[in-house]
Design goal:
- The complex is a heterodimer of chains A (386) and B (154).
- Chain A contains 14 helices and eleven strands.
- Chain A starts with a strand and ends in a 6-residue tail after the last strand.
- Chain A folds into two domains: 133 residues, Thiolase/Chalcone synthase (Peroxisomal Thiolase, Chain A, domain 1, 3-Layer(aba) Sandwich), CATH 3.40.47.10; 214 residues, Thiolase/Chalcone synthase (Peroxisomal Thiolase, Chain A, domain 1, 3-Layer(aba) Sandwich), CATH 3.40.47.
- Chain A is globular.
- Chain A is of the alpha/beta class.
- In chain A, strands 3-2-4-7-1-8-11-10-9 form a nine-stranded mixed sheet. Chain A has a two-stranded antiparallel ribbon with strand order 5-6.
- With 154 residues, chain B is mostly beta strands.
- In chain B, strand 1 and strand 2 form a beta hairpin.
- The longest helix of chain B is centred in the N-terminal third of the chain and has 14 residues.
- Classes of the chains: A alpha/beta (386), B mainly beta (154).
- At the A-B interface, helix 5, helix 6 and strand 5 of A face strand 6, strand 7 and strand 8 of B.
């Protein structure tokens, strides 16, 4: 039988567009120190480390090896996991598996990126098939634009509906000192910003960020000794859907649909909209905030624009999404999924300060990548039953 | 110290060519395209879906596919975007010429989408559901570039 697993500490850097004052391992160390401090434990208490970032973004492979001074991995088991955009969420799922197995009691999980060190579109392109996918490919944005285009054609949504999501996340970021972009924007400003790839404007998409995040997980044997308010992992799920980019169902995120059904079934969640108190969604562009919560089963297909437009996902609304300001405000890619996990954990643990949602019993964090796969974690305040 | 005081080292003009195997199914597809200007896909014996690009296995049914069927050369736009921002094409090291139309084309008879350029001379015609035809390159060498682009047909 698997051990129950909880997050007992989280740490993040103060994310910025460029951190020339630190190299990779120094950046990683900032997040690790913050997580150890949050949990009030020492590196000697850690049994194993999982670390990951995007392949090729810095052009320096094997971060599991060269980062040990910063990660604290000296003479410890260190495993690298990298799954593209979902990396930060996948390292967390990997950490959960290690602790749940009973083989390791306390595991440190790290995600990081120095996006400033390379051309992001060039680096992302290396993840795609050279024979069939690369001719017209334009980084993450081309597929996302095609998704938004298809969704708009299918459901009659407008560019304004997308812009509303950017406005929400950028407003939420004002309350998060770790976010990179902390300036409010308006719907008109989003629509007036340069068109990158129809229908996606500059202010519909995430920035490039340097940053790192760390999470400490512990088994039920020690979690409650480390903290009186652990964030229990109720379930995890991930789904992959395609080989080539043309295989996807544009306008729907089928991997999110399948992963959500699996996650909520495992966690015993029957009415996600009522039972989930907050979502940290890996949402690198505005329309993802509409389409993907429909696929998650929060609302029905085509209902996203109205639901979001009415303020239901704003702070103080029925189901706040991205209290941290989300990916639109900050995207150190290999860390981004783990930042969602950190933020969900902080909400459950009651540690989110200015952007705390009151009385969180269940939170969901997600990862998105490649471009059409999904990782998810269900976080809870109560200890899950066996 | 301020940001400008920190030292940044450039990697230099690194070049590392790769040699990718297209495989037996892809090779057959490109040979048909080059010699006969025909698109061929593979049909799954279980679910009946026709796959472009052709591949040996239907991932969902996890069964081998052997039945070749002709698809296209016409189809409809399944989805698309028009790229308007400049970026470096990592395949060539050159800036990609913008703006350009990026189409996900549903070729007649296929169940997946085929990615290629869409001619955007008249942007108002480029819409989801619009019928398109393939324009073949004059000189064909057996690659994705044997098609120049797709264009909307009235």
């Amino acid at each position: 039988m698997a051990k129950r697993v909880a997050i007992v500490g989280t740490g993040q850097t103060f994310h910025k567009s460029h951190r020339p004052d630190v190299n990779g391992q120094e950046l990683i160390n900032e997040a690790v120190q913050a997580a150890l401090k949050d949990a009030d434990i020492k590196i000697s208490d850690i049994d194993a480390i999982i670390i990951g970032n995007m392949d090729h973004f810095e052009g320096i492979n094997y971060v599991d090896c060269w980062s040990i001074d910063g990660s604290g991995g000296f003479m410890k088991p260190v495993i690298k996991i990298t799954t593209g955009g979902t990396t930060g969420c996948s390292v967390a799922i990997g950490g959960y598996h290690l602790v749940a197995s009973g083989l390791f009691d306390r595991v440190l999980i790290i995600g990081w990126e120095k996006n400033s060190e390379s051309d992001t579109t060039g680096a992302i392109t290396t993840a795609f098939d050279p024979i069939w996918d690369r001719l017209v490919f334009a980084g993450a944005i081309s597929g996302l634009a095609a998704e938004a285009q298809a969704y708009m054609a299918r459901y009659g949504a407008t560019e304004k509906d997308g812009a509303r999501v950017s406005v929400r996340d950028r407003k939420h970021a004002l309350n998060n000192p770790h976010a990179q972009l902390r300036k409010e924007i308006t719907i008109d400003e989003v629509l007036a910003s340069p068109m990158l790839a129809d229908p996606i404007h500059l202010l519909d998409v995430c920035p490039r960020t340097d940053g790192a995040a760390a999470v400490i997980m512990a088994s039920e044997d020690s979690a409650e000794k480390i903290t009186s308010s652990p964030d229990w992992i109720w379930a995890t799920s991930n789904r992959h859907s395609y080989s080539y980019l043309g295989d996807a169902d544009y306008g729907r995120l089928t991997s999110m649909r399948e992963a959500s059904q699996d996650l909520f079934k495992k966690g015993g969640i029957k009415e996600p909209r009522k039972e989930i108190d907050v979502i940290e969604l890996y949402q690198p562009y505005s329309f993802g905030g509409i389409i993907w919560i429909e696929d998650m089963g929060i609302i029905g297909p085509g209902e996203g624009p109205r639901y979001i437009g009415e303020g239901n996902t704003d702070m103080g609304g029925e189901l706040p999404i991205n209290p941290s300001g989300g990916v639109i405000s900050c995207n150190p890619i290999g860390a981004t999924g783990l930042i969602r996990c950190c933020e969900a954990a902080m909400q459950v643990m009651g540690k989110a300060d200015q952007h705390q949602v009151p009385d969180v019993n269940f939170a969901v964090s997600t990862g998105f990548g490649g471009c059409w796969w999904t990782d998810m974690i269900l976080h809870g305040k109560k200890k899950p039953g066996k | 110290m301020s940001d400008k005081d920190y030292i940044i080292i450039e990697s230099g003009k690194a070049e590392q060519p790769f040699h990718y195997a297209v495989g037996m199914h892809g090779s057959k597809f490109f040979r048909e395209l080059k010699d006969n200007r025909r698109f061929i896909g593979l049909k799954c014996p279980k679910c009946g879906k026709v796959f472009i690009p052709p591949r040996g296995v239907c991932g969902e049914c996890f069964v081998e596919m052997n039945e070749w069927v002709e698809v296209g050369p016409n189809g409809v736009i399944g989805s698309f975007t028009i790229l308007r921002y400049a970026f470096i094409d990592p395949e060539t090291g050159q800036q990609k010429p913008i703006p350009y139309g990026y189409g996900f084309i549903k070729l007649d008879g296929a169940d997946t989408l085929f990615q290629h350029y869409i001619n955007i001379e008249d942007e108002s015609k480029v819409k989801i559901g619009a019928r398109v035809e393939a324009v073949f390159s004059k000189e064909r060498k057996g690659s994705i570039r044997d098609i120049e682009y797709f264009r909307v047909v009235d």
